[in-house]
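Predict the 3D structure for this chain.
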Amino acid sequence: MNVPPGIQPIRYLTKSRFKAALECPTKLFYGGKPEYLDSSADNEFLAALAEGGFQVGALACLMYPGGVEVTEMGHAAQLERTRTLLRQDDVTIYEAALEAEGLFVRVDVLRKRGGLVELIEVKAKSFDPAKSGDFRDASGRLRADMLPYLRDIAFQCHVARLAFPEFTYCTFLMLTDKSATSSVDGLNQRFKIRRTGRNVAVEVAPGTNAAALGAPILRAVPVDIQVAEIVGGTLDIAGTPMPFAKAVQHLAAAFREDRRIAPRPGGACGACEFKSRTPPMAGAPRSGFHECWSAAFGWSPDDFAGGTVLDLWNHRGKDALIERGVRRLRDVVPDDLEFDGAAPGALGLERRHRQWYQCVPSWPGGGEFFIHREGLRAEMGGWRYPLHFIDFETSAVAVPFTIGQHPYETVAFQFSHHVLNQDGRVEHRSQFLEATPGRNPSLSFLRALKGALSGDDGTVFRWATHENTVLNELRRQLQVSEARPGDAQELIHFVESITTRTEDRCVATGPRNMLDLCKLAERFYFHPSTGGSSSLKKVLPALMRSSPFLRARYGQPIYGSAQMPSLNWTTPVSWWVADDDLVRDPYDLLPSVFGDIRSKRAEEVAALEVGVAPHLQHGGSAMAAYGRLQFEEIDVREREAIENALLRYCELDTLAMVMAVEAWKAWVEDEAT
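Done. Predicted structure below.
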């Protein structure tokens, strides 16, 4: 920070710290301290890599040509460089540094024209002018999904006015315009990434000018009215409403003094980036979450045993429970879940059953887990062999590939396909991966998938809704494309045959509509180790623990042999592996890719995860890996390693689906005999 010896550096409240403090002011105390577990930086980095956030920032600067970037190291040098530039009457500054009263911000783009200063905050966030309007909901309030961005630019404007009160300010959010289309090919390949750890530099291809960029896909949206409303309003700080300026100074003082603001625990604590799964052991990183709850409720480590109401699956009333003093799972009573004690019916488990079984691990039939054999048997009776299991990996980058493509348009770059025959034979029959930089893979993906599934009329399975959503989006893209391929109608018909969709407010279902195994898991299988979740990443480890069939079959090195062929494992492997009397999660056996990045949790939907021991395990990580293959300058060996990890990861997803069906089928047949 370029601080002279013996001088303590200023502890500035920055815009990222301000954002964290509005989520929970106690986070100011934990942030930046190496002794505390903190996953936020890794998740934000992976999100930017997957979504193209780094490229959006570079593209935004090109829309304001002739600017000067503040690249100096240390706050003091950055501030001095900015002050010098602001003496000019007409100047554009990238990453301008401003400070006042213990507050510090870097402005993405600052434009000064005489006494008028424009502050432009660039976000890799989609914006539809026809729908977004002025970022308000039906009640007239600022929309919850946009409020953090609006508060961000409001904070910057507040600091700017304190630092240079002689200027007049206009504020903008620069967002990706979903209604726009690229008018040039290869736009996204004009922005390459060079990365060292989490330090990223974007290199713009030579010759990138206005003509090369084509029609703008970013839009600067004026937000002066919204900023005035925020700055003139109040902020809730740990349950106390404060005027904006007073709240900012309150937070700045707490951070400057390294003072912990008393926590006000609630349902949002479940997503805390300073949270470990269990109270940490001696020598492990500290868990801010556990310290907060211990301080607020007088808890000891034993009080966390058995879980908290934050663990309740799909429960929207956690804040109310905590407020009423119901904080541990063992404190929950049936009325809290509107549970009448009835056993699961013919349709299987309902949400209230799964939640109650989390609190009181007791269910009809007893035992280690609950299995609804009658429901599964009825479902299986309608299946046609051979059974097909498919899993997709997709991306939605901000900067389009080709002419006519919208920002954040779905790109399908990978699938895996397993087959389970009626005699029990399992084979990894086909796969697809296209990650050549700059090439839109979706059309080739669709053709390959059609070829993989067209040999018979066997039942096709997916896990959750992703595959159905993706195929319907690819169908829409084909329908509106100005350059439709000759086989477009054939591909559209194929998609319609295996999907369900809504047309003119009516549900249309294809004759070979994919079946959702996630719904079957939700209705017919419950294991306490899943935390109520029916995610494949939770269900597979539970099945490996509970299924004698899986232990017997996959406890020997059979996968990748002639008996059970694999496209990516040429040496037979065992998937049922014990470690200190515990069955290892098969996903922990996958090759690591992001070895320099740690992450948060395995089950945070929409967050980008790479696992506790950073492995390529989750869909968000596949998106980030695809982002690296598209935009990062990496050598051939590293590219091959990433592609190999993607192939194995996706293959394990479809094998896991096979394993689930095999385990359920074995339990159903065992009862029948």
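The CA atoms of residues 582 and 620 lie 27 Å apart.
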